[in-house]
Write a structure and sequence with these properties.
11 helices, TIM Barrel, 239 residues, 39% helix, alpha/beta
Length: 239
């Protein structure tokens, strides 16, 4: 299993939010410096979120993200404010390895097929943001149906992987809820990246044993609750 530190960018700065709330941002500084730090410590890649895009200001961090992709030369998956095929294509052409589409995929599911056909399934991640058993979109405000049904549909449309985020525990640093993750892994065959609540080596081990392809470390990593080295050791341990 791989480990992707989160580099969430808001107004040009690396931040971590609690429960996706802009007013609950902790600022950590230069995104490029943090990206290089995590890579120097052995991270398998980076999970970059353009929070300004998620809040309707997609172009604000474009140059910074292009620089990050060019200078780090590492695997990067990018999400946040991708509202169209053109948005996704722009980021893929800018050097991002794969794009994360969430609200767009729910509103226009055929977009998943179009992106997969044009760029290859391996470059398309569909975000499954779930509160309980229901997908939530539009900033986690609007329920949109059963998360397992959506996951199966996105797989059938050509998504190369899924990003599952448990909104109920995201940012709280209180651990994961493994049950919905196991249910998702049992329903799809594409790789699943897990985000939300991962706060200990025990959480990482549970995800690896369940069969997750990768884990995103955010708030707990930046606060020091979990160290990258211990997360990497747990993720890469032999079963």
């Amino acid at each position: 299993m791989e480990i992707y530190p989160a580099v969430d960018i808001l107004e040009g700065r690396c931040v971590q939010l609690v429960q996706g709330r802009q007013d609950a941002a902790t600022v950590y500084g230069d995104p490029l410096a943090w990206a290089c730090r995590w890579l120097d410590l052995g991270a398998d890649g980076l999970h970059v979120i353009n929070l300004d895009g998620a809040f309707g200001r997609a172009k604000r961090n474009a140059d910074l993200i292009r620089r990050l992709a060019g200078e780090t030369e590492t695997f990067i998956e990018l999400g946040g404010g991708i509202r169209s095929v053109e948005d996704a294509a722009g980021w893929l052409d800018a050097g991002v390895d794969r794009v994360i589409v969430s609200t767009l995929a729910v509103r226009e599911p055929e977009v998943v097929r179009r992106l997969a056909d044009e760029f290859g399934s391996e470059r398309v991640v569909v975000g499954i943001d779930a509160r309980g058993a229901e997908v939530v979109i539009e900033g986690w405000e609007r329920p949109a149906g059963d998360y397992l049904s959506w996951a199966e549909r996105f797989e059938s449309l050509g998504a190369g992987s899924l990003l599952y985020t448990n909104v109920d525990v995201e940012g709280l640093q209180q651990g994961i809820d493994i049950a919905p993750i196991e249910a998702l892994l049992a329903r799809v065959s594409v790789p699943v990246v897990v985000s939300g609540g991962i706060s200990s080596a025990r959480d990482v081990r549970a995800l690896r044993e369940a069969g997750a392809a990768a884990a995103v470390l955010g708030s707990a990593l930046y606060s020091g609750r979990i160290g990258l080295s211990e997360a990497m050791e747990a993720a890469h341990a032999k079963s």
